[in-house]
Specification:
The chain is an all-alpha fold and 103 residues long. 66% of the residues lie in helices and 0% in strands. The longest helix has 23 residues.
Length: 103
């Protein structure tokens, strides 16, 4: 049975975005289950953020190559972060926008 490719990528985008946001919020992710012994290490939180970020970028890249729209899943600032591809403190601080920092 053939899958609906655009719907498949929308689901993958949603999951990757959710996973990345969980790393920003320091919540449990699938990655924690792979390396439970690492959770005590301070650098682990940065490492799992990079892994989640790379997963998100990979799915976006594949969507682009297949001409599948991905931008409607993200606000404008998030789109710019993704297009720049560099994960830095600004991405982590501003991913949710002002709404998040004012809450």
């Amino acid at each position: 049975m053939a899958k609906d490719i655009p719907a498949f990528f929308k689901e993958k985008l949603y999951n990757a975005k959710n996973q990345f946001e969980r790393t920003i919020d320091c919540k449990h992710t699938e990655f924690d289950d792979l390396y439970p012994y690492m959770s005590e290490q301070p650098q682990f939180f940065w490492y799992k953020r990079y892994v989640a970020w790379q997963e998100l970028l990979t799915i976006v890249k594949l969507a682009d190559e297949l001409d599948i729209s991905w931008k409607d899943e993200f606000n404008e600032a998030q789109q710019r972060f993704i297009e720049k591809k560099v994960l830095d403190a600004k991405v982590l601080d501003d991913w949710y926008g002002k709404k998040r920092t004012e809450a």
